[in-house]
Fold these 4 entries.
Entry 1:
Amino acid sequence: MAFVDVCGVVVSFNPDLEALNKLLTSLAPQLENIVLVDNGSTIDVAAWVSKGSFGKIIAVLPLGENRGIAAAQNIGINHARQIGAGYVILFDQDSIPAPDMIENLVSVAEAQLALGVRIAAVGPRYSDERQDNPPPFIRFEGLKLKRQKCMNASSVVEVDYLIASGCLITMPTLEAIGGMREELFIDYVDIEWGLRAKHAGYKLFGSCAALMNHALGDEPIEFLGKKFPVRSSLRHYYQFRNAVWLYKQPWPPLNWKLIDAWRLMLKFGFYGLFAKPRLRHLQMMALGLRHGLQGRLGALHDST
């Protein structure tokens, strides 16, 4: 089933074309409107798409420079607004949705709307083939992070935030609370938006029936029999900077701040010991902490 009322927004940046082809091939039968926003890739993504077998459903918007994932998502959302879409669904370039993923997400969204729920977004259950198990959906209860596992394939669980890729968002919610915060550039963009939506009284849900493969970070580090996702030192800069900036804001829940700050401290120690080159990761995480405290946002070259 191809949905007319849903616009897919794919953000690319120097993509692996084989992976991007898999994503677009999986989306084409599910959507009648897709916009690919390219963040200044060194390859001509628009020319590559035009040679593909995706038909005329994909509009390509080359930005000519890397403006960050939040800005690219907002540009894609504005495209969806202009064509009159009722929903937008976001994708990273390395995700592969199941053939019925969007149908399942829309079904959950419309069921909640029919109940009068102020719904912000619905997200899929994703799996990373390099990890041992699909990550559970997350909620914060008191000072505990509650991992909500899927009891059965049809379970729908309320969550505190969703990863951006595969996230189906209602356009009325975007009109009410705004789009992604562009000055964050990348990392914590989806968390900030989800927390902002909840603060405004909206709810987010995870659908256990909606499945998606998604590569989270680079090759994971194995430690004590478990695998932990790792990112580049630059991404760790943005993670630490944006997390600390968000802790300083008055509206996120205090329990979320405390739980996330504790997890951030653990990440600092873990990646400082095991991510290579260690000194570079430590330097970038420390710089992120400093810039977060100073409230210096935007792309790193704009913040130094």
Entry 2:
Amino acid sequence: MNSAERVKAKAAELGFSKAGIARVGEVGVEASRLREWLDSGFHATMHWMKSSIEKRTDVNKVLPGAKSVIALAMNYFTPEKHPDSGEFGKISRYAWGDDYHDILSEKLKMLDAWLGREFIGYEGRYYVDTGPIMEKAWAQKAGVGWIGKHTNVITQEMGSWVFLGEIITNLELEPDSPATDHCGTCSLCIEACPTGAITEPYVVDSGRCLSYLTIEHRGNFDKEFRTDGWIYGCDVCQDVCPWNERFATETEEKRFQPREGSVAARLTDWKSMSREEFSARFKRSPIKRTKHEGLIRNIRAVLDEKV
């Protein structure tokens, strides 16, 4: 078993669903696409993406001497479905359980420590959606999955219900072949997007995306975007993806299982939630990202739409 195979075996032992390795090198095409996306203003108010562009397009600015990126994916799918009733608000499946940042960071920390013990001179930096790195591009380069037309990474084994993490390292590990695109002529995600946020294949305008509007955006948003009952995130583009319909399998990580009330959030009850109740209910939950005022804003927007 070579070094790369040992790393991937350890990742599987720690609970990662898939791991791949990419050699640090040119990212000209990916960097050009990112810059074009930013220049189009599709990042909306996520200004940190533009301010960190130099690091995002060169991992050696994150870890000098970087030679490999270990890309990891973890399945979070659970089969529950939202109630088909206007009484309930919809929360994105990824936020039904505990915060993925905590869970993946815990496992990455263990993998990082193991690498330090196993390989003399090891250096590494690990991230879970928290650092200046093009994690989806590296996941594709490492063979984990391809970036679909909805811009989520799709794996052939599990579909797109996966969280991503990565370790940038100075180790020179045998790379995997990059993943190839298997979206074909399918355009279901584009056609299904309730706000037309997927402006063309592989391009999302964050300013129109319900996930951005209900989580990252501060302040009110136009009534045209108050649609379909979503109060935190949106899963429409993933729900219609044929790869998810065929290959989604239930996660083995118990902490991703839905918390009480997360699949069926009764709007009239949640609308009166206090700050203290919000803090207690969403401790160690990704929903805390939107803050109390953001969640209440989203609930009121959905309720107003039905008046």
Entry 3:
Amino acid sequence: MTPSPFPANPLQGVATPLDARSQALRVAMVKALQAADRGHMGSAFSLVEMLRVLYDDVLRFDPARPRWAGRDRMVLSKGHGALALYAILADKGFFPAAELARYCRPEGILGGHPEAAKVPGVEASTGSLGHGLPMGMGMAMAVRGQARVFVVVGDGECNEGSVWECALHAAKHGLDNLTVLVDYNHMQSYGPTAEVLPLDPLGGKFAAFGFAVEEVDGHDLGALRAALGRVPFAPGRPSALICHTVKGKGVPLMEHNPEWHHKNRPSAAEIAALLAALEAPDA
């Protein structure tokens, strides 16, 4: 395996600029936070470009037929990053964008973690970390030769033994229709992954478990498109794309700040600061 060009550097991706679409998706997420008074913002902001490229350029799907048998599947195993998924699904027409204003409210369908039985476009109910990849592996086995499955996991989630047990099985069964994307933002709920439980060499670990591995800046749209356009990276092997990201990407107040892993009752000043950083008018 080629040595990773991305050392364990929590600043990776800081210089990658956001275009208007990436900013607009984040604005929609901030307004959902404002309506709900809570949300996993830092964890969701690091996911936006990964999900955007998947839904804009890679996945086969039909919002009018969310359960179409021929669709590709996307499982957000890192379920607490649901706000990013909701913003994308609303943007793609799976449900009205107005639903974001009812995020985490009794009258709405969008909870703090995604629920497949309630939200069109959600493939699996996730949030209990380590479960999404096993579910995605089962889907990949079921639709082999017909569709592809993409699973997004968090780096802190890779502490879970179920991730690696599943990786062994995916390699054994040669699931080259399965791609794992790791949101490697180098932070977990209360601190840096390097301090909580070091993961490096993360790409090397997936390679040792039988995956074909590539690594990218997870906020670089061109690099993401190029890498995801090549899956499977090797015939007869599952693929792993290590996406080096920034927790809270796009808002200096949030970047690398564990206080924004989950935010309860953000103040009006904090909401205004988020919107200002994203060049959006306060609303």
Entry 4:
Amino acid sequence: MWTALLAQAADAAPAPTDPGPATAPPSTWVVIFQNLDAVFWLTLLFIFLTAIIVTIFNARRKDKCLKLLRDYHVSYLTTTGQTLWGDLVVYARGIELEFDTPYRNSRNIHKSSALI
């Protein structure tokens, strides 16, 4: 008898209305990774931006030693034994020798500088 009364009392008791632990909204990364198209385009964008930044950086970077020689008056001895004099202009991918006075070479071309 007591078990029947206890069972009826347990059935009559209201169920607790505990909502449970609060769930946080999904993070931005979870939302992005659920959309695979966005992951593809973000990866592609990252690759292109990295390539552009590295290319710009390498194009602007100059040799540390040659950078110190910019605008110096130098003598350059070619492999044929000819000596050239002029001011040195240093670029990221080469060196230009600007002659003191322009001249015409053996092919009658007016020259004011030479790329080394």
